[in-house]
């Protein structure tokens, strides 16, 4: 990372890092001083110890299961969401028919809906994938569709005056113009998909970090619960950062000075 | 290349289904190599005429033809008021975009580079539009219209958004390049001085849908110094009076 970027990173996040560090120190002190019992909130150091001592089952067994659900669900959401958005863009009838359905799918309480997936798919991988898709599909569809619709009429007219067909304007104008909005949706969907996989595991699973945190909660093992949450948070940040890096690369023209 | 509009009418229908006849039985002609400006108050249909000539709008009645052939999309080079350079494309990729839509149009990157060199933009070949000043962007937009390879260029208030100094520079630049290329230009402007400086002929659009043609008998080649001449001032004064006497 060049010096300039490091400086910018420090400028952006130094206050947050100081705040988070202080918060962790305060919690450590509260728990060590027995002001807060450790089964309510564990000391941050004991969560780290928990992760280090149990990294093999946590990472190899549970994290890998959650990530498998995440990747399958996310992949289906991205492919399906983009295809649906493009279809709605080209067909007013499809838009009128399906756009409200996409919106309504987000009004439904996912937690209440999830047992239905268990009913349909059993305690298999696919019930978790279904929750993941349901929760992460929406930002992809809406982000892509709104981006495609944002094509300025004047640009379209200019390209058409040069003899561009609708396919030309779609590929040369609508797609590039949709990318910023698509990436906003993609970043949200990344986070949502991880949440979806975890919720899916709560409702019925035999592995995965959601399942692990629930089992630890039943055993009143706060360190175990927080260990799973910590790993999920780190993975979420990493995935979000990867998406942001891809976005920056794809939209380099926006960042060029 | 001769552009002919014969008894052209166009009615605009808004979302409330209200009809507004913007152009009524308009007949005009632009001859090969001519620089013709359209002037008139807002709402007299200047931009509509340009959109009809590009083929973006279809007239309700009448005929629009170039060399006797009805116009269709892709027959003219069009430059709108905003430069509309695609922000994710480099300048060179912007100016040759028309070649991506038309199989009959071949522009090599070498040719495009020569043109960029010709208009003083070669250093910005790979720059993004936002890295250029307003005047440079307009020059790039003009090149994009020029590289459509069409003899008729439609320029819709291309310098309307520029500051006064850049505008003068761009007028001088357009005069020199037009005189060199011998293209036919149909130009829209609200700036009467600009119309007098650049045009061979000015078509004044009246609110009652009638038109009036004014020949600009100033010698060519012209230079921006002409703006200070009494002849141009007199012509501008005459136009001002005609527009001021109009009733909406």
Automatic annotation (TrEMBL), chain B:
- UniProt keyword list: ATP-binding, Nucleotide-binding, Transport
In Gene Ontology terms, what is one molecular function of this protein?
A: ATP binding
Its domain of life reads Bacteria
**Gene3D superfamilies, alphabetically?**
P-loop containing nucleotide triphosphate hydrolases
Q: Which Pfam families match?
A: ABC_tran
Boundaries of every ABC transporter domain copy: 3-232
What's the protein here called? Answer: ABC transporter ATP-binding protein
Which species is this UniProt entry from?
A: Cytobacillus solani
């Amino acid at each position: 990372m060049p010096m300039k970027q490091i400086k910018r990173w420090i400028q952006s996040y130094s206050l947050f890092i100081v705040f988070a560090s202080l918060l962790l120190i305060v919690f450590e002190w509260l728990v060590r001083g027995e002001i807060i019992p450790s089964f309510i909130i564990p000391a941050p150091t004991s969560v780290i110890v928990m992760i280090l001592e149990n990294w093999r089952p946590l990472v190899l067994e549970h994290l890998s299961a959650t990530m498998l659900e995440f990747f399958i669900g996310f992949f289906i959401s991205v492919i399906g969401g983009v295809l649906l958005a493009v279809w709605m863009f080209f067909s007013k009838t499809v838009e009128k028919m399906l756009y409200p359905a996409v919106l309504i799918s987000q009004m439904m309480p996912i937690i209440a809906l999830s047992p239905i997936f268990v009913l349909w798919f059993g305690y298999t991988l696919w019930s978790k994938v279904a929750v993941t898709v349901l929760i992460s599909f929406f930002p992809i569809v809406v982000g892509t569709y709104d981006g495609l619709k944002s094509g300025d009429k004047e640009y379209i007219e200019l390209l058409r005056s040069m003899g561009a067909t609708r396919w030309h304007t779609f590929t040369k104008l609508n797609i590039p113009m949709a990318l910023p909005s698509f990436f906003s949706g993609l970043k949200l969907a990344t986070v949502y998909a991880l949440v979806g996989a975890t919720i899916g595991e709560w409702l019925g699973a035999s592995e995965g970090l959601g399942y692990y945190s629930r089992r630890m909660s039943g055993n009143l093992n706060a360190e175990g619960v927080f260990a799973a949450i910590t790993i999920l948070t780190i993975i979420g940040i990493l995935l979000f950062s990867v998406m942001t890096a891809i976005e920056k690369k794809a939209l380099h023209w926006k960042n060029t000075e | 290349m001769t552009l002919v509009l014969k008894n052209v009418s166009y009615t605009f229908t808004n979302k409330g289904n209200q009809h507004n006849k913007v152009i009524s039985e308009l007949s005009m002609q632009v001859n090969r190599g001519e620089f013709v400006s359209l002037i008139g108050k807002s709402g007299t249909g200047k931009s509509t005429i340009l959109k009809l000539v590009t083929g973006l709008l279809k007239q309700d009645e009448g005929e629009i033809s170039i060399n006797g052939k009805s116009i269709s999309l892709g027959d003219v080079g069009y430059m709108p008021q905003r430069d509309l350079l695609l922000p994710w494309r480099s300048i060179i990729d912007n100016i040759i975009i028309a070649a991506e839509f038309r199989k009959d149009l071949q522009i090599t990157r070498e040719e495009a580079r020569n043109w960029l060199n010709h208009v003083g933009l070669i250093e910005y070949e790979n720059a993004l539009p936002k890295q250029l000043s307003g005047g440079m962007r307009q020059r790039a937009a003009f090149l994009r219209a020029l590289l459509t390879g069409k003899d008729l260029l439609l320029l819709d208030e291309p310098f309307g958004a520029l500051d006064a100094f850049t505008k003068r520079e761009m007028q001088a630049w357009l005069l020199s390049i037009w005189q060199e290329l011998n293209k036919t230009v149909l130009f829209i402007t609200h700036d009467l001085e600009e119309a007098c400086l650049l045009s061979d002929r000015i078509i004044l659009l009246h609110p009652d849908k009638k038109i009036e043609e004014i020949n600009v008998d100033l010698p060519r080649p012209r230079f921006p110094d002409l703006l200070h001449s009494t002849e141009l001032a007199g012509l501008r004064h005459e136009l001002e009076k005609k527009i001021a006497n109009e009733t909406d």
